[in-house]
Design goal:
Helix content is 67%, strand content 0%. It has helices at 10-24, 31-38, 42-48, 52-77, 84-100, 106-113, 118-125, 133-148, 159-181, 190-214, 221-230, 255-272, 280-287, 291-298, 301-324, 333-350, 352-361, 381-396, 403-425, 434-450, 461-466.
Length: 467
């Protein structure tokens, strides 16, 4: 535990409340339950907080202070001889460590309590303190890159650029944390996840230094806006807006409608609680019916969970394919990647719970299958598209798309996209204006695409062969 309130039981109380809220919801937070969890007399808890409302009210600020304290301590622990690249890499790894070390708290810490307000974000865009400790700390550290290159923030580099670079950094590392704690990367060995993180952080920080040196970033706003406008014409092949809260008796529905309702509740459980809560028992309890009735529709828990993955991934893939089918013949791999990126974000901000469920339920491989050009199998269709176009982009740039290169480049793209998707739909940026969310996403996409050219082999085998 990191001491925030010296000589006071306040931190023990709030830490106990945090764990109760994460496990049982805020409604379970009472003076008595917190006193029991903290092993303190009720009177001592009341001396700090007169009632449960005061405890709940104090939690958002505590969640922020808790995270910032951890990040600051990690930065302070970096050796004095470490260069800025190393310190910033340590900083990004610290954020990941904070998120991964308590997976049971992830949703509570990053979805239910932490948030960035519109006023805080606008203040940062203008070069002022946002008074959001997390944002300000990241902005301060990214500003050091400009100083390293002898650039002055405000004149040489505008405040908006530094603010957006800060969010791009946050989004990419947050994406790695989100995918590792709640997403498909949780199935990997912890050593592999650490390798992933180091490689992504190296590409990210290296790209930021390169951007500061050359003061340029890929311009992706115009094509992404065009693809976003195209999605206005997309019509799902089935209704995904079923309101199951209005169903009085699911047993009175047709078999097909009842099955749809059961799957819809499974998607909600995956998004709100996690895939382990997707069970026939929990679905039956929600509808007030027997386990036997639900099992007659979906067989067993495995089939039910598989349906969440299949349904949401198919929906996400449909968004991507709609855009890809409208690209002109001979479109570049980068254009294809931008289509998929737009589809991801549109799906996330339009259907936040379904996107969250899609990430939670994913169980396929994320590793290329050895031979160049070999069809990707054993992975979700939407992710396979990313992998395919990342491979094509390397080939178009004149590089042999060997698997390790494809894996790392694709992982960086995916982390940035998923991080901003989660932050904007369910996470800290959920209350920001929709157009601001999209503006940020364009910039995040530009940064992760720029990282695509970072640390590539000096030789271009394919280019030399064709010369």
């Amino acid at each position: 535990m990191h001491i925030l309130y010296e000589g006071s039981p306040r931190e023990v109380i709030l830490e106990s409340a945090l764990h109760i809220g994460a496990a049982e919801g805020d409604e379970a937070i009472t003076v008595e339950s917190v006193a029991k969890q903290a092993e303190l007399p009720v009177a001592e808890v009341r001396a700090e907080f007169p009632d449960r409302e005061a405890i709940v009210h104090a939690l958002p600020d505590y969640v922020t202070e808790r995270k910032v304290k951890f990040l600051e301590e990690t930065l302070d622990a970096a050796p004095g001889y470490a260069d800025l690249f190393t310190k910033l890499t340590t900083f990004t790894e610290a954020y990941y460590e904070y998120a991964e070390r308590e997976p049971e708290l992830f949703r509570y810490l990053f979805e239910k309590k932490a948030y960035v307000s519109e006023d805080e974000w606008r203040a940062l865009l203008q070069g002022n303190l946002s008074h959001n400790r997390t944002l300000d700390l990241i902005y301060e550290n990214i500003s050091l890159i400009a100083a390293e290159e002898k650039l002055k923030v405000g004149s040489d580099v505008c405040f908006q650029t530094v603010a957006r670079l800060s969010v791009a950094t946050l989004a990419t590392v947050h994406g790695m944390a989100h995918l590792s704690v709640l997403g498909v990367l949780r199935h990997q060995h912890s050593v592999v996840r650490r390798f992933n993180l180091r490689e992504v952080c190296k590409a990210l920080i290296g790209t930021l230094f390169k951007a500061a040196e050359f003061l340029e970033m890929p311009d992706v706003r115009s094509p992404m806006q065009e693809y976003r406008a195209l999605l206005a014409g997309f019509v799902p092949d089935r209704d995904i807006s079923l309101d199951i809260s209005a169903i009085e008796d699911v047993q009175e529905l047709s078999t097909e409608r009842a099955r749809m309702a059961v799957k819809e509740r499974a998607i909600q459980l995956a998004a709100r609680e996690g895939l382990q809560y997707v069970t026939i028992e929990n679905v039956a309890e929600y509808f007030g019916v027997s386990d036997v009735f639900v099992a007659s529709l979906v067989d067993n828990d495995f089939v039910l969970r598989e349906s969440v993955e299949r349904e949401t991934d198919r929906e996400l893939e449909a968004h991507s394919l709609y855009l890809l089918e409208r690209l002109p013949e001979g479109a570049s791999a980068v254009d294809k990647l931008l289509c998929v990126a737009v589809a991801y974000f549109h799906y996330a901000v339009t259907f936040p719970e379904r996107y969250s469920a899609c990430i939670a339920a994913a169980s396929g491989s994320v590793v290329p299958l050895s031979e160049d050009g070999e069809e990707q199998t054993q992975m979700g269709e939407s992710f396979a598209l990313l992998m395919q176009f990342a491979r094509e982009a390397l080939r178009e740039a004149g590089y042999a798309p060997e698997d390790r290169l494809v894996y790392i480049k694709n992982l960086t793209l995916w982390a940035g996209a998923d991080g901003m998707c989660h932050l904007a739909s369910m996470g800290e940026f959920r209350d920001i204006d929709l157009e601001q969310k999209w503006s940020l996403y364009y910039f995040v996409t530009a940064v992760v695409l720029a990282s695509f050219s970072y640390d590539l082999p000096e030789e271009q085998p394919q280019a030399s062969q064709s010369a």
